[in-house]
């Protein structure tokens, strides 16, 4: 019968893993190079190959090809050294963070990876300052100091206990100063990195061929010699390729129908791994739009949206309703949107609009991406349109674009309301609030909230013990609910579908649910 692995990570950081698949003997993790590369399918193609430009699922590729000072060995719940030999705060105020690099690090082109390269990599993120790019992660960084070839110090302008988590994100990938200009993005369709794999070839939007980097010096074990990542436009096509044995693994973008069908499959050829997820899905309202910029319009939508219906009808209960930007399982999670708005109510929504003097029906355009989060996205937005129009209070137009042009559109402020998904940079409530507020954020849509950015986040970041930050995050989420600029919809689980010939999928996702493809291998004996 169909084999199903259930993989649970307890988050504060997503730690232990439980497998429900009964083994049939001892498996060897030796790769069989004669069988060719492991083929992984996903719907999340990179938007760029330059880490200085990406705050999205381009990180999936970066994690496996570039190297960061810190990263997450399989099963780790906190960052551990990768390119670094050791990192630590050297003061009592969480404002000076020092790292010592491993000896003899090299980029794939043979150039030395040293402390100067680390400084160059971090500095160029801020200098290039791509709109919606990762510079927003470095808000607490004052300057980077090179002590010698192997030692670098990060001087922070305020206490930030989350800074090691920031350094562990693929956005902080270390790049070769001779290949990646200080003041502009690299345009070549290739990567010069020092990670577990080298990028042998890349066909944008179609596939990336990875081969083991023999000069890699870090924590990662590579249980295969090569991996090819194929990029798909939708889940059915990807799952069809998996069933036809054109893929070994399918991940990121599996839609609900395919997941349910895979779970119920009676064949002995495929397995599915289910993991606790901190992925969230939400709506963003543009404050400069004449309609979406009105608080009453946003709160009326919050009062109408039926999250359980979306989770059940569209996603077949493979996701769960979310009433806070901070997902369940993380310290600081609340249910603020349910506390304020309760169950969907047309009468309450009408009252909100009437008291604000807004006539109905309110005309509004909702945008979504057609190829990033899986083919269920279209059905989700059709359900949102149905719910809002059924109330008689809204007239909704739906529009979509492929991810690359979609990103450009919302960064330019073209959309009144648009959908986004968020895969965490690191497993902490800070990462579900800080990226979305401030003049410079991951959405390219400024959200000025001085109380959050100048008081609550700095207060929480001064606490090394994250159990002590609950009150700060509860207050921050109260502000998010009152503003209703961001409307959380659902929290996802993680699913990896694979051939039964493949092992390692239950260990392949790090705490931010990025796949470390080196954990995948073919079973060579029973």
From TrEMBL:
It is found in: Cell envelope. It comes from the Bacteria. It holds the Pfam family SBP_bac_5. The keyword Signal applies. Residues 1-22 form the signal peptide. Transmembrane segments: none annotated. Keywords: Signal, Transport. The keyword Metal-binding does not apply. Residues 79-442 form the Solute-binding protein family domain. Belongs to the bacterial solute-binding protein 5 family. This is ABC transporter substrate-binding protein. The lineage of its organism: Bacteria, Bacillati, Actinomycetota, Actinomycetes, Kitasatosporales.
